[in-house]
Amino acid sequence: MAIERVAIIGLGLLGGSIGLAVAKHIPTIATTGFDADPEARQTAASRGLVDLVCDSSAEAVRDADLVIMCVPVGAIGFAAETIKDALPKAAIVSDVGSSKQSVGVALRAALPGHCIIPAHPVAGTEQSGPEAGFPELFEHRWCILTPPDDADENAVQSLTEFWETLGSKVEIMDAEHHDLVLAVTSHIPHLIAYTIVGTASDLEDVTRSEVIKYSAGGFRDFTRIAASDPTMWRDVFLTNKGAVLEMLGRFTEDLTALQRAIRRGDGDALHELFTRTRAIRRSIIEQGQDDARPDFGRSDHVTDKSDDH
Amino acid sequence: MAIERVAIIGLGLLGGSIGLAVAKHIPTIATTGFDADPEARQTAASRGLVDLVCDSSAEAVRDADLVIMCVPVGAIGFAAETIKDALPKAAIVSDVGSSKQSVGVALRAALPGHCIIPAHPVAGTEQSGPEAGFPELFEHRWCILTPPDDADENAVQSLTEFWETLGSKVEIMDAEHHDLVLAVTSHIPHLIAYTIVGTASDLEDVTRSEVIKYSAGGFRDFTRIAASDPTMWRDVFLTNKGAVLEMLGRFTEDLTALQRAIRRGDGDALHELFTRTRAIRRSIIEQGQDDARPDFGRSDHVTDKSDDH
C-alpha cells in the first residue's frame, strides 16, 4: 500500500514541516492542506507548505490516502467531524499530538470504521504557526505510532515507511505507555519551565529586568520551552491529566527531599545526585538526541543585539 | 591604578577562561596561576591558560596586583589561607563564585586588612576543568561586583575596567540582593533541573532508554545544566541556603496552583500563564542574553551519532 496523496489539516509548525519534508524527501507525493485560519492558509500558500491549499478540510481530504491532523489535541475531535463525510473509505487517519490515548478515543468516536493510527513525532521547536516549519524538523528524531490492537498491519507499515522517509526513527508503542513516557520526557519539563518562568516574573524583590539580565546563569534554558504554543500545551495537560499528575507527584517528592538536604546542610546527598545526573546527558548526546557542543553551541554564535550597557 | 599582574587560583572553566580572555584582550598583563590538582596544572601549562603555572598558590600571588579565586565557594576560605602570607598588601582579592555573602565573609576572615571585592561573572557552560575554558566566555555577559560599603573606589573602578575589557558588562550590587537574584535566575533552575533528571532516571515504569530516546520533547533542555560541576553546585546550595529555600518555596507554591488547575481542568488558568511566559523569552533575546534561533540553534546543526535504530 503506497501513500500517494497526503492531506494535512492544520498548517502550523508540525503540519508545515511535514509538507516541506514530503516535498524534500518524496516529491512524488501530492500534498493538500487546510488551516482554519485564513491568514495561515495564505502564508502556507506563499511558502509552498503543501502543493495545494484548500478552502475547506473536506476538500483537502477528498482524494487523500493519508490524512494527518496537525491541530491542538483538544480540537482533534472537532476537526475530525469536518472531514467525516469527504474522507475516502481506505484513507489512513493519523495525527501528531503529544497525548495519544485521548486522540485515539476522539478520532475513533468521530470517524467510526476508518483506519486510525495515532502518531507522535517527538520533535518541535518553541516557534509556532505557518512561518515556523522547516523540512529537517523530523530528521534523527523518534516518531512513536500507537496503533490500536486491531489496526491493519499494512497501514501501520505504510505509515512507518512514510515517517522513516522523512528522516525519523519509528517506534510502535501502547498509547497508555506513550502517555506515561511523554509525561516525563516532555510534559513535566514544560510544566516546570512554565512555572519557574512565571514565578520569576511575579517577584516583588527581584525585578523583571534583573531576571532578564542575569538569565545566562541557567534561567534562560527554561524560557525556550516556556515560549511554546499556549493552546497546544493547555490541551496536552488537559488530555494527559492522569499521567501528568502522577509524574508531577514523583517530581515534587524528589524536590522535597532535596529541599530537606539543603536545609540540613547534607552536602553528600546533593553531591551524589548532582554526579548521577551527568550520565544521562552523556547518553543523550551519544545517541544523537542533543548537540554535543557546550551551551547547546550557543557560545559558538555570540551576538549582542543590545548596545545599551 | 592599573592592573598589570593577575594571579588565578583554580584553573577550571572559569579560571582558565579568564586566563585566555586576558591573553586575548589585554596581552600586556602577566598572568600566573595555580591549581591544587597537579594534572590540571599540567593541562593548564600545555593549553597556555596562564603565562606561568606555579607550584603553589603562594608563589602564584607573590607579585600580583589582582588575585582571582576560581575555586568552589565552599573551598574559598581554605584557598585564601594558603595565600595569606605571600599576598602583596596592595593587591585586590576577588573571585567568581555564585553566592556572594558567604564569599565575602570567608575572604574577610581569612585575609583581614586586604582589599576584597567579590565578583560574579554570570557566564558558564556545563563543562568543567582545565580543558573547558575559552576566551569568549564572558563576552556580552554581565559581571556583578559586590564590594563592601567601605571598599576602595579606585579598586572597584580597576576591577570594573578589567571585566569590561574581557567583554563583560559590569553591575555593582549589594551581596544580599545578588544572592536573592541569582537564587531565581540560576540556583533554582539548576536545582529543578537536577531534580527532574534524577526523577526521570529513577522510574520503574519508564526505562532510562526511553527517557533518552524521547528527550527531544523537552527533557534534554534540562540535562544540560544538570550536567554541571557537582562540587561547585553542592557548595552554592550550602552557602546560599536562605535565598534558595525562600525562592524554592515560591516556586512550589506556583507549581501547586498549576497542579490544581490541571486536576480541575481549568484550561483558562493554564492558557493565561502559558501566554504570559512568552514575553520574558522575547526580552532575553532582545537583550542579547540568548540565541534567537529556534531550538537554541540546535536544528541548524543536526547530527546523528547513532546508527542503531
Walk me through the structure:
Two copies of one chain form a homodimer. With 309 residues, chain A is α/β, with parallel strands linked by helices. The first copy, chain A, has two domains: 5-173, Rossmann fold (3-Layer(aba) Sandwich); 177-288, 6-phosphogluconate dehydrogenase C-terminal fold (Orthogonal Bundle), CATH 1.10.3660.10. Helix content of chain A is 50%, strand content 11%. Chain A is built from twelve helices and nine strands. Chain A has helices spanning 13-25, 38-47, 57-61, 76-83, 101-110, 153-165, 175-201, 208-213, 219-225, 230-239, 241-264, 267-286, and strands at residues 5-9, 30-34, 52-53, 66-69, 92-95, 115-116, 119-121, 142-145, 169-172. In chain A, the strands form two sheets. Chain A has a six-stranded parallel beta sheet, with helices on both faces. Chain A has a three-stranded mixed beta sheet with strand order 7-8-9, with helices on one face. In chain A, α4 (76-83) runs parallel beside α5, α7 (175-201) packs across α9 and α7 (175-201) packs across α11. The longest helix of chain A is centred in the middle third of the chain and has 27 residues, at 175-201. Chain A is globular, with a radius of gyration of 21 Å. Mean pLDDT of chain A is 94; it is low at 303-309. Chains A and B meet through α7, α8, α9, α10 and α11 of A and α7, α8, α9, α10 and α11 of B.
